[in-house]
Design goal:
It holds the Pfam family FAA_hydrolase. The protein is mainly β. Helices cover about 15% and strands about 35% of the residues. It has a single domain, classed as Alpha-Beta Complex (Fumarylacetoacetate hydrolase, domain 2), CATH 3.90.850.10. The chain is built from four helices and 17 strands. Strands 3, 4, 5, 7, 8, 10, 11 and 14 form an eight-stranded mixed sheet that branches. A four-stranded antiparallel sheet has the order 13-12-16-17, with no helix packed on it. Strands 9-6-15 form a three-stranded antiparallel sheet.
Length: about 230
């Protein structure tokens, strides 16, 4: 066994209802996957192909923990999303086979330093500092997928201090789960443990210290946090 110069960081895991924990690999995030959200951000949906950015697994904050307001921003935004967890990897996956790669689903918050993201867009630079930072992926427990689960019929919703900010159905996504898995597998070799955050509906907005966030999708375990 090779000696390490210092202890490796522990691999982040997600709790799973009724099962062992799910080890997190990469986190792929889908941009502008709801037409109304793209519109509110001043963009049109590119229907030729989805596009992606990533978050580190070490950016994960488990639901139920407080989120410290991040540094070097004055415009922290919430983005409520469906999280798809993969149990099986591969490349060039056929869309017809894509759902067999899904382990389960969860609720997630793609937290965004919007001012840093906007500055990066203006200078045509990557979004990393606006999207991938400590506690930027707040994730709830996973629920194993069931065969023919009608995920597209479920309502996705986010409340801030008890007031609904975001609400849509998952069927409003521009790119379906199977389309996203198939497309990602032409860009990367996917692996068990990879997560896909599938985009956010309209209604994104700022949060401040003291705000309490609660996101739900159907009967999935909610994602909850308080900004401190």
């Amino acid at each position: 066994m090779t000696d390490l110069l210092f202890p490796a960081r522990p691999n982040p895991v997600l709790p799973v209802e009724g099962e062992a924990d799910f080890p997190i690999g990469r986190i792929f995030c889908v941009g502008r996957n709801y037409a109304d959200h793209a519109k509110e951000m001043g963009h049109e949906v590119d229907r030729e192909a989805p596009f992606y950015f990533t978050k580190s697994a070490h950016a994960v904050l488990l639901s139920g923990h407080d989120m410290p307001y991040p540094p070097r921003t004055s415009d922290l935004h919430h983005e409520m999303e469906l999280v798809v967890a993969l149990k099986q990897g591969g490349k060039n996956i056929a869309e017809a086979d894509a759902m067999s790669h899904v382990f389960g689903y969860g609720c997630g918050l793609d937290m965004t330093r919007r001012d840093l993201q906007a500055a990066a867009k203006e200078k045509r630079r990557p979004w990393d500092t606006g999207k991938d930072f400590d506690n930027a992926a707040i994730l709830g427990p996973l629920i194993p997928a069931e065969e023919d689960m009608p995920v597209e019929d479920l309502v996705i919703q986010l409340e801030v201090n008890g007031i609904v900010r975001q609400q849509a159905t998952l069927g409003d996504m521009v790119w379906s789960i199977s389309e996203l898995i198939a497309d990602l597998s032409t860009l990367y070799t996917l692996h068990p443990g990879d997560l896909i955050m599938t985009g956010t509906p309209a209604g994104v907005g700022p949060v401040v210290k003291g705000d309490v966030l609660r996101g739900t999708i159907g009967d999935f375990a909610p994602v909850e946090t308080r900004i401190i």
